[in-house]
TrEMBL record:
It is a single-pass type I membrane protein. It comes from the Eukaryota. PANTHER family: 5,6-DIHYDROXYINDOLE-2-CARBOXYLIC ACID OXIDASE (PTHR11474:SF3), TYROSINASE FAMILY MEMBER (PTHR11474). This is 5,6-dihydroxyindole-2-carboxylic acid oxidase. Gene3D superfamilies: Di-copper center containing domain from catechol oxidase. It comes from Ameca splendens. PROSITE patterns: TYROSINASE_1, TYROSINASE_2.
Amino acid sequence: MQLSTDEKRAFVNALEQAKRTTHPDLVIATRHYSDIFGPDGNTVEFENITIYNYFVWSHYYSVSKTFLGAGQASFGGVDFSHEGPGFLTWHRYHLLQLEQDMQDMLLDPSFALPYWNFAIGGNTCDICTDDLMGARSSFDMNSLSPNSVFSQWRVICESVEDYDTLGTICNSTETSPIRRNPAGNVNRPMVQRLPEPQDVADCLQVNTFDTPPFYSTSSESFRNTVEGYSAPQGNYDPIVRSLHNLAHLFLNGTGGQTHLSPNDPIFVLLHTFTDAIFDEWLRRHGSDLAVYPEENAPIGHNRGYNMVPFWPPVTNAEMFVTAPENLGYSYEAEWPGTPFTMTEIITIAIVAALVTVALIFAATTCAVRARSHKMEGHQPLLGDQYQRYDDDKGQSVV
Ligand SMILES: O=C1C=c2cc(C(=O)O)[nH]c2=CC1=O
């Protein structure tokens, strides 16, 4: 919200260019590796993809069933990027890769992704304007205004069921427009409001990075809290959706479905803010790798594991570092303060009372001293200048 008009325009244009520019280095596989040369052994089963669509595809790939090859059932229940300690490290690298690809595309190494402070409460999407991520269409509650470039974007990886049945992987084919209806989920009133500023303050107070079973059921885990499966204070509750999850679900459309969500460019800004919270937590609580689980986390989430499907390989540990010192970026963010506890209020009241008493005492002492000095100063010594009465002589002398 604090970008200038020119900065907003430059950011939106850069996203638009990334959506249209073929990735210079990467292609995507659309079949299991054993079929990568097609049925005749001569057809390549991989495709070019644009920079932004590669960003969408890699997220889809990380959450989709693991395809074991033609004639074999796919292996589900695996999520390389969510519901585990790697949630924050995976999405951090995901953003860094997009930012780097966009810097190269723009020939501008200073290009940086901004963030959206989604913890503003209420039911208004403040960045859903045509100069930013697109206003709501006046014709259809679920669509973007035709004045936004994003109304022309088409999504990829929409047909998950087809990929499963056909035994293929999502390809680069673009299909429907982005759908978004912020605060419009009438069936789930809990996701009709954005997280509150206090939720961010509370989650930053959760001391432990992650707790067994290192999953979406973890309690008193900072990672599970900021991911949004716990109440903002850290206690796991299966009904609750908070922070990152709540912001996704609030969007109510493309941005709220895990296999599709990066197709809505709000994903980028929602995740940079989540990353900013992560970095603030590392700054406050330390980034000692010992707090990141070395084992017993879901597949792909252990400390030393490579994050799927990034290339070249990069481990969770490599992203568990403070960004300004190790990764060369920082967030210009102000963090909401935490209200005082009752004990803190009582302590502050006692200290304030003692200080007041001490000040009054000191002031009174000074005043009394000053007065006595004043009196001394003006009170002439009893001496010759005072009349004395000499009773004996019956006359007065000076
Ligand atoms: O894209 C996402 C969509 C999500 C929805 C939930 C949920 O809590 O139901 N979580 C999500 C994470 C995403 O990354």
